[in-house]
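Reminder to self: tokens first, then the designed residues, so the page reads top to bottom the way the pipeline ran.
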């Protein structure tokens, strides 16, 4: 069992918490519902999270299976169970089938539309592992779509619409994280599997592009805040969240600019005290703004 847990990359489950983002951005709408309706929506949100966790783990297994020969020579990936040969092909197939059934079952209990999103994610994940990951620029665009898909699933699970600006922010934030990761990898791993990828992301203009995307994230979030306030969706307290958002994302940029920390985004996010603090203050302010707005 331990080898399957390790092969599932538990730390990367953090990505799937994006599914809960629509929940936090629609708190004020939940108050018009009864207690039972709220429990149902929370349960649906959680089931959608479990469904997508299983779907993403399927993607990791397929990717590791396809890359197992290359991963054997990678300084970090060589320790993955599949590259070590600890999991047989038959075991992988059975594991994937079980995950798929759980994913579809959870999605079915929430909304049949989520089943389509699961199929879309798995097919795109397979395409990424097979071909797209070797194509510069298209590879990071594909990963950004993975994040947006998670946001859509979270929205479908609660039946409340969210601002288009949140989808744009999801795209920009994921783009920033992926660009930093690719640039960091291009500097420290000269023997990467796809030389075109390393050459493309090691170019001198990439740090400037990363900084531009950082500024766009901060600017777009500010625009989102003002659009919410001017449309009477939020009160002025909501504007304070932009401070914690800007600090958190800038802190991530600053920390990952040092050494090779950008290669493991989840490690940075869960270990850096400043980022954790900014997230806590952000959520607290968001909740307070929703309370007063009501």
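Designed residues (294 positions):
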């Amino acid at each position: 069992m331990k080898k399957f847990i390790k092969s599932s990359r538990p730390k990367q489950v953090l990505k799937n918490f994006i599914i809960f983002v629509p929940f936090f951005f629609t708190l004020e709408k939940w108050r018009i519902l009864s207690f039972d309706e709220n429990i149902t929506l929370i349960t649906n949100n959680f089931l959608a999270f479990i469904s997508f966790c299983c779907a993403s783990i399927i993607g990791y297994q397929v990717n590791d299976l396809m890359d197992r020969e290359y991963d054997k020579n990678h300084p970090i990936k060589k320790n993955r169970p599949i590259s070590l040969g600890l999991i047989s092909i038959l075991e992988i197939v059975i594991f994937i089938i079980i995950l798929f059934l759980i994913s579809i079952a959870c999605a079915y209990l929430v909304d049949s539309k989520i089943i389509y999103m699961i199929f879309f994610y798995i097919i795109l994940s397979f395409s990424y592992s097979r071909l797209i990951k070797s194509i510069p620029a298209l590879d990071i665009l594909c990963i950004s779509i993975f994040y947006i898909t998670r946001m859509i699933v979270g929205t479908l699970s609660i039946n409340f619409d969210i601002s288009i600006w949140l989808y744009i922010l999801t795209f920009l934030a994921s783009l920033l994280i992926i660009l930093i990761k690719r640039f960091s990898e291009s500097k420290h791993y000269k023997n990467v599997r796809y030389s075109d990828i390393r050459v493309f992301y090691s170019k001198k203009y990439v740090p400037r592009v990363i900084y531009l995307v950082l500024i766009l994230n901060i600017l777009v979030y500010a625009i989102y805040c003002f659009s919410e306030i001017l449309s009477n969706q939020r009160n002025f307290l909501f504007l304070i969240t932009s401070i914690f958002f800007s600090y958190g994302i800038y802190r991530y940029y600053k920390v990952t600019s040092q050494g090779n920390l950008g290669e493991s985004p989840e490690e940075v996010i869960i270990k850096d005290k400043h980022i954790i603090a900014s997230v806590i203050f952000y959520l607290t302010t968001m909740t307070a703004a929703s309370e007063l707005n009501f």
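The longest helix spans residues 35-66.
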